[in-house]
Amino acid sequence: MAKATNVSMKLLIDTKGKRVLFAEAGKDCVDFLFHILSLPVATIIRLLQVQGMEGSLPNLYRSLEDLNVTYIQPNQSKDTLLKPATSSSVPLLAITNAPIGKNFYRCHSYVSDSSTAAGHH
Which PANTHER family does the record cross-reference, listed alphabetically (predicted)? Predict the structure, then answer.
């Protein structure tokens, strides 16, 4: 069984405006939130925003959209979290009977699938 891990976050909340003004969290907590966004849930949130979906996940998504790129690791993109690859874009099974690609060779006026034939014409 996996060991339980606690994460914590300090929040400054505007109760009248019903919004978080400031959040302070450790790396584990931020990594967890980004992991949630990297699931296909982020795609669902993005698609449902057109219909005015409300709640904490859409708010988290919008906050990430608005996050200044200064806070993103070098050579990384917010799109990795905002638009994660869905399982439909990842092959699930290896194709065992896939045809093997054929190589063709050519010289100035001749094409062949044999590397020795193309050089003799």
Answer: OS01G0153900 PROTEIN, OS09G0544700 PROTEIN
Burial 51-65 (b: 16+ CB within 10 A, else e): eeeeeebbebbeebe
Of 79, 84, 86, 85, the closest CA to residue 64 belongs to 79
Please report, as a single letter, which amino acid is at residue 107: C
Q: Strands, DSSP E only, in the chain?
A: 9-14, 19-25, 105-107, 110-112
pLDDT, one tens digit for every residue, the chain (121 residues): 567 778 889 999 999 998 889 989 998 888 888 777 777 766 666 666 656 666 677 777 788 888 888 888 888 888 877 777 665 555 545 555 555 667 777 776 777 777 776 555 5
